[in-house]
Amino acid sequence: MRQLYYSYHIFMCQNVRTDGRACCNADGRATRLREYAKDRTKEWDLKGPGGVRVNQAGCLGRCAEGPCMVVYPEGVWYRYENEEDIDEILFEHIMNGNPVARLRLDDD
């Protein structure tokens, strides 16, 4: 089996809509929490080849559900609110392989 360059890719929506409709980054929280996730992966030695890559994404199409991310290769979608949610996703899902049920978004 081919070795993946990154074990996990985390795509975090950074979209801002200017027409008043809901979006992930209306208040700048998604940008702040993406930076937090990047810092945390570095601090916890998860960052880089063989580990985790945290990516900025444009609209992921789930704007009404609040700040969201998708974790690949599993394709698990999450909604998050704060640093504690990011820590839980990184610790439980990324480090221990257990998706976080309370933050998961339905796949539909």
Total domain count: 1
SSE ordering: EHEEEH
Give Rg in angstroms. Answer: 13 Å
Strand portion, in percent?
Answer: 15-25%
**Widest beta sheet: strand line-up:** 2-1-3-4
Mean pLDDT: 92
Helix content: 25-40%
Give the class from helix and strand content and strand pairing.
alpha+beta
Largest sheet: 4 strands, mixed
CATH class descriptor name: Alpha Beta
**Discrete helix count:** 2
CATH H-tier superfamily: Glutaredoxin
User: Which regions have little confidence, pLDDT < 50, spanning 5+ residues?
Assistant: none
Terminal-residue CA separation: 30 Å
Judging by the overall fold, what is the CATH architecture? 3-Layer(aba) Sandwich
Which descriptor suits the 3D outline?
Answer: globular
Number of strands: 4
Question: Looking at CATH, which topology would you report?
Answer: Glutaredoxin
What does this structure look like?
The protein has 108 residues and is an alpha+beta fold. The protein has a single domain, classed as Glutaredoxin (3-Layer(aba) Sandwich). The chain contains 2 helices and 4 strands. Helix 1 packs across helix 2. The longest helix is centred in the middle third of the chain and has 15 residues. It starts with 7 loop residues before the first strand and ends in a 13-residue tail after the last helix.
Summarize the structure.
This protein starts with 7 loop residues before the first strand and ends in a 13-residue tail after the last helix.
